[in-house]
Specification:
The structure is a single chain. The chain has 397 residues and is α/β, with parallel strands linked by helices. It folds into two domains: 171 residues, HAD superfamily/HAD-like (Rossmann fold), CATH 3.40.50; 151 residues, Serine Threonine Protein Phosphatase 5, Tetratricopeptide repeat, CATH 1.25.40.20. 43% of the residues lie in helices and 7% in strands. Helix 6 links the parallel strand 3 and strand 4. The longest helix is centred in the first third of the chain and has 20 residues. About 1% of the residues have low confidence. One of its GO terms (molecular function) is hydrolase activity. This is Haloacid dehalogenase-like hydrolase domain-containing protein. Keywords: Hydrolase.
Length: 397
């Protein structure tokens, strides 16, 4: 469920700003909330209606020291159970693939930011947020706009609708973004802020970070070679033909010819980038695929347009080939994207290959992988039954 306020509806139908960077809150946005703020306020002696950090900074030195000790203690406990919110990694990878900078502004400590990077973010192969500003790094806490001003300077950008602030607090995050004049997205999984003005006029209200990429594609111009502003991304190319003897034998399903060839011939790609394995998968030759795998060819090699054998089998709906690949025990990558960020499950869903979808889901393919337009496989099909299969698999995890 997503809600667009008037400014973003206008943006979606008229001139769209170029997305130039995304700034995130941490607790409750990138991570699942795990701090009891009511207890924190009570232990610090600050009423819930007051801003905790502002109140602590105004305390006497003795009271302030005691309050900071409580906050640090509770945050330290929270770090041990910190986990990423739904869609956080997928969104991070999507922004990375589009070359968009990301930053972090949080009222949490620098230790918590470091924990996020070291334990949850960097192990997934996603660059650290830069700048990553904690309460220890800023003179003014959110919602004061100074941190966003500093990030814009670091990025050599101007504040404006091309920058996006994403957070779960209407006052501390949306008010923060509005004060700086940037676009805003409110993450509201429990739908607490959707009535009246409780969302502080957020441009977007979403249930999950997983919804955000497709919404960004629809409402912003996305830069880069994979983005909406690229003139060459969607350029059609004619389907290639197999060129080498091994590739032709694979397409013909000529097992005897393949077995008589040297291993280097079975591994070699033709000018399209396809290896014999990719050609055999595309042609639906399950026996040839099995023979090539037995000869030790690389199962995850990318061919034409960056597609693997699994991708080609899913796209064509060659279920017998897919079964061979999935049971091969050769470390097959179920989710390897092609040049346009389409995963094999995207192909099976888009091409309405129901049996291929079932096989991929049973094997554990990701239901949350994102293509370049920010769509998951469930959003990339016009078949309601396939969409339901994918969503049911996601819900069962």
């Amino acid at each position: 469920m997503r809600v667009l306020s008037a400014p973003l509806r206008h943006m979606a139908s008229a001139a769209r700003p170029l997305l130039r960077g995304v700034v995130f809150d941490l607790d409750g946005t990138l991570t699942v909330p795990n701090l009891d703020f009511r207890e924190m306020h009570e232990r610090c002696g600050v009423p819930m209606k007051e801003d905790l950090l502002a109140a602590v900074r105004q305390m006497s030195p003795e009271r302030q020291q005691s309050a900071w000790k409580v906050i640090e203690e509770m945050e330290g406990e929270g770090r041990r159970t910190l986990e990423l919110a739904e869609g956080a990694l997928e969104l991070g990878r999507w922004l990375q693939r589009h070359g968009l900078p990301t930053a972090l502004v949080t009222r949490n400590s620098a230790s918590t930011v470091g924990w996020l990077h070291d334990k949850l973010w960097s192990p997934a192969g996603i660059p650290a947020f830069h700048p990553a500003l904690s309460r220890d790094d800023v003179e003014h806490d959110k919602p004061h706009p100074a941190a966003l001003e500093a990030i814009a300077r670091e990025w050599n950008q101007q504040l404006g609708p091309g920058l996006l602030m994403v957070g779960d607090s209407p006052s501390n995050d949306i008010g923060f973004g509005k004060a700086a004049g940037v676009s805003t997205a409110l993450v509201d999984p429990r739908r607490r802020f959707r009535e009246g003005d409780s969302s502080y006029g957020a441009d977007v209200v979403i249930d999950s970070l997983l919804e955000l990429p497709q919404l960004l594609w629809k409402t912003f111009d996305i830069p880069g070679p994979l983005g909406s502003t690229s003139a060459q991304t969607l350029a059609r190319k004619s389907e290639p033909l197999p060129e080498t003897a091994a590739c032709r034998a694979a397409v013909d399903g000529d097992i005897a010819a393949l077995k008589a060839m040297a291993r280097e011939d079975l591994l070699a790609a033709d000018s399209s980038g396809n290896t014999p394995l990719v050609w055999a998968a595309d042609a639906g030759k399950a026996d040839a695929v099995e023979s090539l795998l037995a000869a030790g060819v690389e199962v995850n090699v990318k061919g034409y347009l960056g597609n693997t054998a699994v991708s080609r089998a899913c796209r064509r709906g060659h279920d017998s080939v897919l079964r061979v690949l999935l049971r091969s025990g050769t470390g097959v990558d179920l989710d390897e994207p092609n040049e346009k960020m389409q995963s094999p499950l995207h192909f099976a869903a888009f091409k309405q290959k129901t049996e291929a979808v079932k096989l991929m889901l049973a094997a554990g393919a990701s239901t949350t992988s994102l293509d370049r337009k920010g769509r998951t496989p469930a959003e990339d099909t016009s078949d309601p039954n396939i969409r339901e299969l994918i969503l049911q698999a996601r819900a069962s995890l």
